[in-house]
Amino acid sequence: MTVKATSIDLLNWRTPPMRAFHFAWMAFFVCFFAWFACAPLMPLIKQEFHLTADQVANINIAAVAITILVRLIVGPMCDRFGPRKVYVALMVLGALPVLGAALAHNYTAFLLCRLGIGAVGASFVITQYHTSVMFAGNVVGTANATSAGWGNAGAGAAQMFVPLMLAGIVALGASNADAWRLTLVLPGLAMPLMAALYWRFTQDCPQGNFNELRVRGIVVDSGKKGSWASLLAASRNYRVWMLFVTYAACFGVEVFIHNVAAIYYVDHFQLSLREAGLAAGSFGLLAIFARPLGGLLSDWGAKRRGLSARSMLLFMLIAGEGAGLLLFSQASHAAFAVAAMLLFGLFTHMACGATYALVPFIDRKALGGVAGIVGAGGNVGAVAAGFLAKGMGDLHQTLMMLGGLVTASAICAVAVRFSAEHTAREAALGATN
């Protein structure tokens, strides 16, 4: 019987775990590119729709609000239907609001489409779920963090390449009003294409697809056969809520920065749309190596000092992120702002990787629920940051406040403790489970 992979062989596409790994991060990349494709276009959209600062804030909040609910739903759905079916459905349905945004001609229509696009942010939970059931404990932290980091780079790629795509379309003779709409069509079409590839080349777990295994009487190790019991079980575990807060502090801030960075650089430092996109994109592209590094360090520490090392690493990364964010908030020149953003971005992405390196060890029998709740925490943090910015009315003050809140939240990582029995059980499972 096929078992979980105990190593990550990046050039191997033959085994189910490695195919799931590669298609999971590619699907995640496409979804995040689509999710954040609107962000670097906001200066143009703001101008065309004559948006107020309050309306821009509402759009940014809408972009992440619905993701909270969808992330909570898709985790248990993965337990029930398998990650393959859930991912395909999310990409096919998620393409509709992306294409709808390209047809919007007023604030209300664009706001509703932006709300719908936010659902594709739940792709992260499915990616983490799929790699968690495919890889053994000795490498699952690295597998989770690497697939998430490479996929998460889709947000940075959107920041960087969407302005270039826009410029290319304008060079072909399109007006700005038509060009930004045409730019959104590409990610809208890429999502159903990736859905078809995901359906063709992946399976739910090393042994096969959940529905086929259950017909044969085989109990899959993902949890409770997908009822909402996994969500309920996860919600009763205090460690889940500690990671909910830490993920709000790292991924929530990351999403907030993705949504405001381009327009912030344009408004506050008078950069061009292309320059602002390159600056903002550099933050997102850090995820390619920084997030995997967080997972790799977590696995390395756990081998030497057990599960507690994962918690302590997360504490240090969250604290470093908070300090870096405070430094970024004090930047008075564009070059210093970019340097500070890259510094705190490094800690932010590593903290995201370290958080999900802990997720598979919280409750193996409620993996979908744990992944969903912790993932939703990231978007709760982004929504909270959005409301904070809207209430304060000044991004500089908002960033300072966020820096302090993130630093304080690091204590939640220290609170993630494991009993001797839990630690011994995980040690006994070792590299094969």
Q: What would you call the structural class?
A: mainly alpha
Roughly how much helix do the residues carry, as a percent range?
A: over 70%
Shape annotation: globular
The total beta strand count reads 0
> Span from first to last CA?
14 Å
Give the C-level CATH assignment.
Mainly Alpha
Strand composition percent: under 5%
Mind telling me the C-alpha Rg?
Answer: 21 Å
CATH homologous superfamily, by name? MFS general substrate transporter like domains
Give the biggest beta sheet: none
Give the domain tally: 1
Description:
- This protein is an all-alpha fold and 433 residues long.
- The chain has a single domain, classed as MFS general substrate transporter like domains (Growth Hormone, Chain: A, Up-down Bundle), CATH 1.20.1250.
- The chain starts with 15 loop residues before the first helix and ends with a helix.
